[in-house]
Amino acid sequence: xxxxxxxxxxxxxxxxxxxxxxxxxxxxxxxxxxxxxxxxxxxxxxxxxxxxxxxxxxxxxxxxxxxxxxxxxxxxxxxxxxxxxxxxxxxxxxxxxxxxx
Length: 101
Fold this sequence. Notes:
Elements: H1 3-13, H2 30-43, H3 45-74, H4 79-99
């Protein structure tokens, strides 16, 4: 067992007790929060442009995946091949997220 895990184990044992769950705020209202949050995001140029770029990039990426599937099917590829190709992409996504700081 590494030193880091030992230190974590010791600090957990001598910690200040159990962690309490954060207090729930039951008076939350989704419509009210959207009414407050969307105008705020729209008035901030960075948030607006980042949100719009994210939405459009997701449409483009999903369209490219659909195009890939259509081309492979047209060229006679099997559903197994399509699954393997998309699976390899998913593994790359997971590895990329693990490599991120």
